């Protein structure tokens, strides 16, 4: 039972354009969401998070949007840069401070120069 | 600040053999996790420690996997005997109590290949 789903295994975007990565979840108990970025042969690194009391959180070029009614969140990267090429994982937990995370399967983002 | 350290980085064994992975979390982090990431999938939690006590091991295959965290610092994850389906990257992560962002800090992982 995949509670966190990333239906696009891969995405290619031109440098300078917007990258949009999507994530859906099924567990209505999830109320804290995170995005992690992973380069080859490295562990995942935290990128940005959002609590269910918000619908948007922004950090520099990265913005995460949450639509609770649709159980959907998205990560926007503007403008996309070659260094953004990586695998992005969406993760969720049942409350902030409970760092037991359920991860999606990841989306490989490739930025084309 | 030093990150989460894991060893070995790579291990190749034959099925039915045993293997052990070691993790040293970030200093002061009370919570430690072991995740299993099979190729093409997201990380899956195996076990969570709070200091040296187990918080959650519901997804740990206890017939072959064991883990311990002596003195609430370093941790080892053991697989005995290994099966082909145990081929994966084993990620160790740590977090402080009630961290500011709820994030986990991951090590680089230990890649296991079972032949």
Account of the protein in words:
The complex is a heterodimer of chains A (113) and B (115). Chain A has strands at residues 4-5, 10-14, 19-25, 32-38, 45-51, 56-59, 62-67, 72-77, 86-93, 102-103, 107-112. Chain A is mainly β. In chain A, the strands form two sheets. In chain A, strands 2, 4, 5, 9, 10 and 11 form a six-stranded mixed sheet that branches. In chain A, strand 9 and strand 10 form a beta hairpin. Chain A is globular. Chain A starts with a strand and ends with a strand. The mean pLDDT of chain A is 93. With 115 residues, chain B is an all-beta fold. In chain B, 0% of the residues lie in helices and 48% in strands. Chain B contains no helices and eleven strands. In chain B, strands 2, 4, 5, 6, 9, 10 and 11 form a seven-stranded mixed sheet that branches. Chain B has a four-stranded antiparallel sheet with strand order 1-3-8-7, with no helix packed on it. The model of chain B has no long low-confidence stretch (mean pLDDT 92). Chain A binds chain B through residues 4, 6, 32, 34, 36, 41-46, 49, 89, 91, 93, 96-106, and chain B through 4, 31, 33, 40-45, 48, 55-56, 91, 93, 95, 98-99, 101-109.
Short description:
With 113 residues, chain A is mainly beta.
């Amino acid at each position: 039972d995949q509670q966190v789903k990333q239906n696009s295994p891969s995405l290619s975007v031109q440098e300078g354009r917007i990258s949009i990565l999507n994530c859906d979840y099924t567990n209505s108990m999830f109320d804290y969401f995170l995005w992690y970025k992973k380069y080859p042969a490295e562990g995942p690194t935290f990128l940005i998070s959002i609590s269910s009391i918000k619908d948007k959180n922004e950090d520099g070029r990265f913005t995460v949007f949450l639509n609770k009614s649709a159980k959907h969140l998205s990560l926007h990267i503007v403008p996309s840069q070659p260094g953004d090429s990586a695998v992005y994982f969406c993760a969720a937990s049942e409350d902030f401070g409970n760092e037991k995370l359920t991860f999606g399967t990841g989306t490989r983002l490739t930025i084309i120069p | 600040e030093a990150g989460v350290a894991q060893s070995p980085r790579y291990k190749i064994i034959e099925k039915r053999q045993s293997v052990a992975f070691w993790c040293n979390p970030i200093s002061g982090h009370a919570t430690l996790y072991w995740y299993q990431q099979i190729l093409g999938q997201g990380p899956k939690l195996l076990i969570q420690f709070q200091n040296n006590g187990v918080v959650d091991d519901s997804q740990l295959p206890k017939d072959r996997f064991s883990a311990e965290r002596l003195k609430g610092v370093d941790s080892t994850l053991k697989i005995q005997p290994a099966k082909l389906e145990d081929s994966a990257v084993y990620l160790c992560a740590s977090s402080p109590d009630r961290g500011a962002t709820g994030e986990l800090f991951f090590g680089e992982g230990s890649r296991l290949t079972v032949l």
